[in-house]
Amino acid sequence: MLAFATRRLILSIPTLIFISFIIFMLLQLAPGDPMAQVPLTVPPEVKEKMRQALGLGEPPLVQYWKWLVQVFWIEPQVLIDHIFGTSFAAGDLRVISWQTRSPVMEIVIQRIPQTLWVVGVAYVVAILIALPIGVYSAYRQYSVFDQAGTFVTMIGFSIPPFFTGPLLIVIFSVQLGWFPSIYDTTHVVNDWESFKVQLQQMVMPVMVLAFQITAQLSRYMRASMLDNLNQDYVRTARAKGLSEAVVVNVHVLRNSMIPVVTVIALGIPSIFGGAIITESVFKVNGIGQLLLTALFANDLPMVMTLTFIFAVLIVLFNLIADVLYGLLDPRIRYD
Questions:
Q1: Backbone angles phi, psi at 96, to 5 degrees
Q2: What are the residue ranges of helices labelled H in 169-252?
Q3: 3-state DSSP: the chain helix, strand, coil percent, rounded to 5?
Q4: For residues 289 and 297, is the Cβ–Cβ distance under 8 A?
Q5: Which of 124, 135, 174, 293 is most buried as measured by Cβ atoms within 10 A of its Cβ?
Q6: Count of domains in the chain?
Q7: What is the pTM assigned to this prediction?
Q8: Residue 187: inside a domain, yes or no?
Q9: Residue 36 DSSP label
């Protein structure tokens, strides 16, 4: 298993470099000019100097190489300096946001906690709800519970977050006044009272995201359980006298988790990507909102870095899912 993981990690390096090159070239073809945000009163020669300072006058391949060096060489040194107090990256040029003129990674690190508070909690809540619902719906196929669960999950699939978000705001914030409609990103949790305030402002965005994720995961769980409940090994386990709880919760559930693990693992990078629509509706100043503002401002270094981080997370969690396959199914061996 260790040799397999090592090989995959080594092979992921050229894969990520190729992905970053494709992303960079596609962004070069995107319409828009970062100098469009500059006031019209700025003289053309000043604008040209600003373009040169941002590196826009250089060929695309030169710009890509500089970005590559900054991300793979300078940023790791900055992280080492931050942890151990060294000065390896002192004076080196980092990836700078065209919009804020500050290092991109510092902005990303500032936004990650807000995204994890909302999107991360929503994903955990959805998993804890979806898996039991999917298991019980499959075991009690065509029961009232199964029919009700199918109806609710179809609603979760059909209604987008930009509808459920404002709907919850109208009901729970405007009409009932239970929860705030705007997420306060400046709120600091330092005692029990501030923690309760944090929970109150998290309820509605977490509900919106968890509802959508639960609908997806519970249907995958149900379909996988139904496929395994009719297998020969289940009849053999029952014939050997094992209790129904052991048959369902140990044998069937373990084999049914294999395809569901793929869905969960590939969905985890979306936590760090944030939910762009939900974060915009509730004014959560997270990674999704950061990507949206960077797109509107033609901030290519920010967009490039964020999309590359998403690609790294997808490759990483693909590897984690493959490793989990071997733990769930003893028949799967990589070495």
A1: -105, 135
A2: 192-229, 232-239, 244-246
A3: 75, 0, 25
A4: no
A5: 135
A6: 2
A7: 0.78
A8: yes
A9: G
